[in-house]
Amino acid sequence: MNLRRIIVACSLFLLVSAAWGAENLRVLVVQSDNNTLYQTFTNALTGSLPANIHLTLVLRAEDFDAQQGDLIVTVGVKAADRVAGKTTLPMLAAMMPSNTFTDLLAKRSRTRSTAALYLDQSWVRQVAFLSAAIPERHKIGVLHAADTHLDISALRIELTRRHGTLISRSLHNADTLFADLEEVLIASDVLLAVPDGAVYNGSNIRNILLSSYRRGIPLVGFSQAYVKAGALCAIFSTPEQLAAQAGAAIVSFANTGKLPDTQYPLLYTIAVNQEVARTLGLTIQSAESLRLQIEKSQGVLR
Amino acid sequence: MKHRTYDIRTHIAWLMLLPFLVMVISMETFFVHERYVDLDNDLLARGQTIVRQLAVSSEYGVFSNNRAFLADMADNVLRQTDVKSVVVLNAASKIMVSAGSMPYTVVEDGETSGSVSAYARLKSVSRDVPVFDNGNTLLLYQPILSTQLVFDETDATPVVPQAGGVVIEMSRDEIRKLKSRLFWFTSLVTAAFLLVTLYLVHLASRRIIEPIIRLSAAIQAIGAGHLETRVIVPSRINELCTLTRGINQMTEDLQHERAILQRRIDEATQQLHGLAFYDTLTGLPNRRLLNDRLSQALADSQRGGHYGALMFLDLDNFKPINDQFGHAVGDLLLIEASRRIGSCLRETDTVARFGGDEFVVMLGKLRVDHAEAVKLAYVVAEKIRQLLAERYCLSYRPAGQPDSIVEHDCTSSIGVVLFLNHESSQQEVLRRADAAMYQAKKEGRNRICLYEHGKTDAVAPASDNA
Amino acid sequence: MNNQKVALTLLLCMTGRAIYAADYASETDYYQELPVVLSASRLSQPLSEAPNAMTVIDRKMIVASGFRSIPDLFKLVPGMYVSSYKGSQAFVAYHGSIDQYAHSMQVMIDGRSVYMPPMSMVDWADLPLSVDDIERIEVIRGPAAASHGANSTQGVISITTRDAGALDGKSVSVTRGGKGINDVSARVGHRGDTLDYRMTLAYSADNGYDNLTAPPNNYPITKSQASSLLNNTFDSNQTRMLNYRADYHPDGADRYDVQFGFNHNVKDVGWTDSTGNPVHNLFANSNFVQLGWIRALDDSAEFALRFYHIGQDQHEAFSKVSLVPNQVTQSVNAIRDEIEMQHTLPFSDANRLVYGAAYRLDRVDSLGNDTLKALSYSSISNTSEYRLFAHDEWRITPKLLLNTGAMVETDGMGNQNTSPRVALNFHMTPRHTLRIGTSVAYRTPSLTEQKIPVTQPGELFVINAVATSPGLMPERLMSREIGYLGELPDWATSIDLRLFSDQLSNGIYGSSATNRFVNGFSAQYRGLEATLKHSFGEERELTANFAHELASSNVPALVAAGKMRPTLGMPSGADLLSFNTPRNSASLLYSQRLAHDVSFSTAFYYQAAMQPFDRGIIDHQPIQRRVDARVARAFNQGGGVKGELALVLQNLFDAKYTEYVANNVFNRRGYITLTLNW
Lengths: 302, 466, 678
What we know:
The complex is a heterotrimer. Chain A is 45% helix and 18% strand. Chain A is α/β, with parallel strands linked by helices. Chain A is globular. The chains are: A alpha/beta, B alpha+beta, C mainly beta. Chain B binds chain C through residues 302-305, 368, and chain C through 347-351.
């Protein structure tokens, strides 16, 4: 009840502040690099902003050198890292993995008002996704690097809450990848891929997928590429979706003069590999139904 | 002020050890002291017995001044343990015989020679002072009394005449040795005993303290936020088991509560953030979210090869109600309209408010066949149109007045466009639906109009007037 | 700001970045491109979606069965008839076989057809493949010409060998047992970033069947007959082989598969009482090379190209026992080259098309020499065939799956066959599937049927240079079936039921009237097959198969018309084919993992009595009941050395039975296998 009142109050506040009208806002967008990934983001961002917000683009992080503006939007870790130490302007770090932000940049940042738009899905959403996609499988296996920066215990808590079990092992060293993987696979019935480059990379993924496939264990990935490669399903946010959220945050900044809180992606995509599901004898719902279930479980406004 | 804190192990150890230590030490002291006194007394008693006997036996020798006899006897006495020297004095306290280590020589004329100090020492005992003890040596004096009684006429009591005296010197060396042996022995025993005690205390502390240390570590971890911590204490101690259970239960509850709280916070945050993608009045997705949904639906339609449909809805006479009753009532109507639209749709379909009195409905995954998809889209559109055309009864409270009910009729014009694959862009799909909607308006409102390449096709209300 | 400072800051930034680039996740971890690993060709079709009835024998079952020869594995397929002409000449047939060559089953190893001319059969002993290199076997029960081409009239055995990357390390295995069982194998494998490979070197030997100790089936035989008839000493078998497989995957899109193998096989053939085919050795050298290229295209489309070469060289030399002994040498050299391309094209999530083309060249070079008759005979035969195929898998609704497909092929004899197939799978619920299917398949007459050898001493067929049975048409089989597949997760059980009716027309048989092969045999097979799988928890599993089959044919009519010789001892007018097919057969396989790394499995095989079609009633095959058991203990030697010691006992209760020929007696036997991996 209270919550609802807060929300209503907030929304009213937003409405009122929107009515003030925004002045012309100068936004500096700093890309980590000039390749399609960042270009996609920047193009989508440009498209989502009203005319009174002026974008200036810095193509590469290296090119940034304390340029001026009202707000700096960094795209990617490299750009954020470069900008954080160099500016005192409000900074919005888009396309930012949450653990990298909390562990590294939040401490280093010189500017007082820094907010991040995370790239990864919250464990809450990830677990909601798992229980919607493969409700009959509860033993979630995770193989991570020994010095992982992922909050594995938070995942365990969230899984426990959803009546799942986490089977996590850390990689002993690069040579024992398959022995460690076997250990995880023996005890679990789903393998959840995590963004640990030591375990999940272009050269390992082949044997990881084949090993898990031979055991009839589906892999749940974290990008479209995983689903294409042979993962059962994945939940992720596309650069366009991250850009839309960044656009909303910029508009909100223009209206209120305040950066929104650091937040997880609001928009996300679910990809399902029905072919893999069929082969493994799993019935998995369509992406839309999965989204619906996740939103229901998270109680999103509708 | 900061108090120094000790851990429980030190506390318990001191509490158990200190009284013990005090007791053991005092008991040992007492015991050793007692034994020392006993030894001393024993020595004295023995000396007295020896000296008494010697005195009795020496009577004849002294009486007869038989020095050889006396020397023989003195030698016998010397064989007794602890006896260091024996001196027999005559009635005139002159040395008759001296044996042992005491350096007195007997001179023929009865004069003694020897060191002055030794002589002085000899003099320190007498009939009046029979015992002399300077800590190192014990000198005992016993007078030799004649067995013949001499009766004095003037005195009624018989006088026992003194024939001489005997002095023996008892050495304390042996006793000292014994004492030190005793001391070390008892000390060793005590030390061994203390060690055993220490070990027992350690054991006890292990059983009691280890679990407590673990519990305390766990609590510290829990305090630090590691709510996944659980303690397993293999203890048979009732209270500890209860405590363990309690802590685990508490942590679990706490964890659960925190997870719930975290989720609530997450959800609330999500909802607050969600404002960027939702219309604040109706709670429907806004233009931004629709764009995202539409792009996903377009991609989906490409994969699945089925048609989707997009409808542009505009309420036909919304402006009058706004003008007549104010924005508040207009808002109520919009909320009601959005509820009605939503009730016509599947859960996976999206209805978004585009602004003002414009709504967009997106139907995903209709049919693979075009004609069927069109039919299905029409059915849905018609359902919406009919439902929206029903009378609205809006209850509101004008300023300072009681509740009143506004009745209003409001129809809708709907433009429908079907999409498949990426044959047209997102913007194009929206534009076409908009165009179809305007066509519907142009053709007299309260109708559905389908966008078809080049022309739009309006469908008049079928049974509205029947 | 001076330049030095800038440079320093830049340097710090760079080093800082270098540190987290290794440790911390960045957006590139999320958006990196990955190779397509589980592409269409990797993914096996689930049973509930297959257009045919299918039985899968996976690695676990292979191990649990304890079998050391490949044909034995098919005892675990319902309705499959596994038998041997001699200890080293096994054959596998579905619905029974009318001779020991079992012409009508296609056998593929990783897509390579080992169904070889001139006999149109599979010589199981000559395959350069060891049981331990098999990952899984899919047996399609029923014709599948639409997908596997001609000669799959009764079914298809599709063997998938273990991945190149299945073994990372070295492994040695030694087997010793009764009846001369003596196997040794060594394996080495490597799993790398871009190259995986494995290699097997193996030696395998045994002494075949046991000896008959009493006249079979109480058949009255004379003493002189007994010594020859009962003697079964000469059916041992020795194989040496090499098998190599490499998988090179330099990037995400391309995969290259390289395989080659070699097999040198020596088997005892012939009969002690035969003059034309006395006891002697048959030598065979087989080799193959297979090259494959698979490219993953966009939207899970895929292009695959495959080439393979098989060479099979068999030769024998023996003295024909006659009034004057004479020396006969014969050799048959068969070579096959095939190239196939295939494109998998998904139109949408619901519809997928696979189409392709293949060209095959078969060459048979046979040569014989008989010293007495100073006779030398030889022939060379080249046959080329090509085929086009297309197969569409359409999920009309989530509940309805329609498989349509066809193959057009031209064999070397100018016959063009079109084999269509339509199968509808109806998922009543996701767990219960009904399948209705009908398909047509053809069998090309074998070279030996078309060109009957003039003279045939020994074991090999030196085919005639010109056709002796001109105008021989392919056999045609029409199959109709209804299948049900049920998953009962609550009971951890799955059920596979199939009712079928197969109609063989234009069947080829040797006419006794003309001494040639002619068309005109027709037969009908009807029956019911069932498979039940149940797991009791995670440690215990049971697979049960049952088949009930009825066969009928026009044999009585052919006999009456004098085109086929009646079998001695059979009642006149009896349909021999109906006795040739075991009416009931069943198999049970139960495996259990016990504590302390001990695993136990046992199997039971049952087959009703039957009369082999081309043998006299002396070779009547009585009921088979056989129980096998396997106990194994895995151990970890430490230092990366692991191993397993296994004991297999076959025909545990010594229920002596015979197979195909009356003196093929199978008694209890056992062997021990020690395997070490490091």
